[in-house]
Amino acid sequence: MTTTTTPTTTPAAAAAPTPRKRAARLPALPEVSVSDDGEVRHLHLGTPWIQGSMRVAEPFEIELEYVQRMMAWLLFMEPASVGKRHAMQLGLGAGAITKFCHKKLRMCSTAIELNPQVVAVCRSWFKLPVDGPKLRVVLADAAQEIRKTEWLGTVDALAVDLYDHDAAAPVLDSAEFYADCRALLTDDGVMTVNLFGRASSYDRSLAKMAEAFGPDALWAFKPTREGNTIVLAQRTPRAFKRAELMDRAEAVQARWELPATKWLRVFKPVA
User: In the chain, which ranges are E strands?
Assistant: First the structure.
């Protein structure tokens, strides 16, 4: 099964009687399509690159390894407190993190997504629930939306996965952007970011995060087989003993069936 949808575009404003210069047109948003590969459904944005996946029989579990690793902020928080916290995702993808935080962790969850067709396809094909008291999908440019005062200091778990439709580079990857992300977080809040660890830009991205958060705030996984490297940044840097992390990992694995004990083999502070 394959379905393709066409993104909505805003009609151009009526021209003035004697215009001096034609207004620049906004770039078109990529076409959204869905493909099924056996029991797994994939989201694409105008290319064959997979931008998100879901096992059809388990729509609220996280299918992809790198997306599972983006939940490693759970190692830094008391499990009993998770349901009282706020998770935010910049970039909806196939909705895996949003659904998991909302359905499995019972968190207040907010996703910010630029492309209205991504939201529509997630609701039609990826079991994303409609908005409610504890779930909100905001159609907006993430760089602008996160600067609004209503979000500052409210987010406990921030997931950033903002790649272009070719999956070649992060759309937002500046020290200023990461500083804005830090401003969203509560005192013990954590940001997780998806990077390509084998790309030449990886070290530059780490340096920008270190500028915004401080080098002692950063933790990173080794790359997955596909090259995805998940980096975590703490709003307030705190060192954890390995025994404490193992206790948390065992609790996370028992409660939410994430492979958290395996994470500790490939997860360590950057500094």
Answer: 2-5, 32-37, 40-45, 52-55, 86-90, 108-113, 135-139, 155-160, 185-196, 218-221, 228-234, 267-269
As beta bridge partners, residue 53 has 42
| AA identity, residue 106 | R
Q: How many CB atoms lie within 10 A of CB 45?
A: 23
User: Rounded distance, CA 238 to CA 214, Å?
Assistant: 12
Distance CA 260, CA 78 (A): 14
Q: What angle do CA 241, 101, 41 make, to 5 degrees?
A: 115
Residue 217 lies in a domain: yes
User: What is the rounded CA–CA span in Å between residue 36 and residue 258?
Assistant: 24
Give the domain range for residue 184.
Answer: 64-269
- Residue 42 inside a domain? The answer is no
16-62 residue pLDDT tens = 444 444 444 445 788 899 999 999 999 998 888 899 999 999 999 99
Q: What is the largest CA-CA distance in the chain?
A: 72
**pLDDT tens digits for range 138-153:** 999 999 999 999 999 9
Instruction: Return d(Cα 164, Cα 6) in angstroms, integer.
Output: 17
Least Cα distance to 114 among 8, 12, 23, 35 occurs for 8
CB atoms within 10 A of CB 267: 19
Asked if 219 and 187 touch (Cβ cutoff 8 Å), the reply is: no
Looking at the domain assignment, is residue 41 inside a domain? no
Are 235 and 185 in contact by the 8 Å Cβ rule? The answer is yes
- Name the token pair of 198: 């084998």
* C-beta separation of 219 from 231 below 8 A: yes
In a domain, 29, yes or no: no
